[in-house]
Write a structure and sequence with these properties.
Layout: H1 2-17, H2 21-38, H3 47-50, H4 58-74, H5 79-97, H6 100-106, H7 112-119, H8 121-140, H9 142-160, H10 166-194, H11 200-229, H12 235-256, H13 263-271
């Protein structure tokens, strides 16, 4: 979370100096990260040599292991729909926020400083979620937590479409990130409990395919919605529209997943893992 506190403030400061500096700084940070990664010494076992048969190439081995994890994921009656659900949630989130900078500038009329402040909302929400989340989950149950989260996401998007003050939007982002963190606490611990240890990385790669793969599609959809709708409605409403669309789709996800992630089903899956 530290990067989410420091990043917006630093970005705002650099932007105040020159519009180009934040991009140069960002590019330099990636070069520095690549250099640090290059210093890491690989100490993993030679997987191919450890397998007694194995005339497979590294590419074939990787492909087969990827397929193995994907088959396991697709065969699980709870984890499979959970992966689909995460993909849908990330899709609508990316859709809603694709034009966020324009929304903040043209609808909320924020300054560079306030934009930096808005950037900390998610960090605060995640921090509070990480601290308070486990106690909340223990009190209301894992299934109820997921149900509340699935209803909260679209509700917050729909409320976001109506906002006219930046500090109200700050609260909504705070609540969304709080909800996202408690969702992750439940789902990540569930995955780590039920997936066999030797398949954990392979299954998680398939799970992340849905979770992360949908995000660029959501961003594209959000941009298309804003661009096309601007020809038929006012600029302000075209920037609000992605939040409405995200909220409606999110409500559909909530209705489609009702009863799938109950505490009873989650506990049963853990017992049979």
């Amino acid at each position: 979370m530290a990067n989410q506190f420091a990043g917006p403030a630093l970005g705002s400061l650099l932007l105040g100096i020159s519009i180009y500096i934040p991009f140069l700084f960002d590019a330099a940070s990636f070069f520095a990260s690549a250099a640090l990664i290059a210093l890491i010494t690989a100490q993993g076992a030679k997987i191919i040599n450890n397998r007694k048969e194995s005339n497979e190439s590294a590419t074939q081995l990787f492909t087969n292991e990827l397929k193995e994890g994907f088959r396991w994921l697709m065969g699980h009656e709870i984890l499979r729909p959970m992966a689909y659900t995460l993909g849908a949630l990330n899709f609508v989130s990316s859709l809603a926020l694709a034009s966020f900078i324009l929304f903040a500038q043209e609808v909320l009329h924020v300054s560079i400083f306030v934009m930096a402040v808005l950037g900390t909302a998610g960090a605060f929400g995640g921090l509070v979620g990480g601290i308070a989340g486990p106690k909340l989950i223990a009190k209301i149950g894992e299934g109820t937590t997921l149900t509340v989260a699935l209803l909260s996401f679209p509700t917050l998007f729909l409320l976001g479409s109506l906002v006219t003050r930046w500090y109200i939007f700050y609260i909504l982002v705070f609540l969304e990130m709080f909800t996202a963190v408690i969702w992750n606490i439940v789902t990540v611990s569930f995955r780590q409990t039920i997936i066999p240890s030797q398949l954990l990385g392979r299954v998680n790669s398939g799970y992340r395919f849905f979770g992360w793969g949908s995000m660029p599609l959501g961003s594209l959809a959000g941009g298309v919605i804003t661009t096309i709708s601007a020809h038929y409605i006012s600029r302000e409403y075209s920037l609000r529209l992605p939040f409405v669309v995200a909220g409606v789709i999110g409500l559909g996800v909530f209705l489609a997943t009702r009863g799938r992630f109950t505490s009873e089903r989650l506990e049963s899956a853990k017992r049979h893992a």
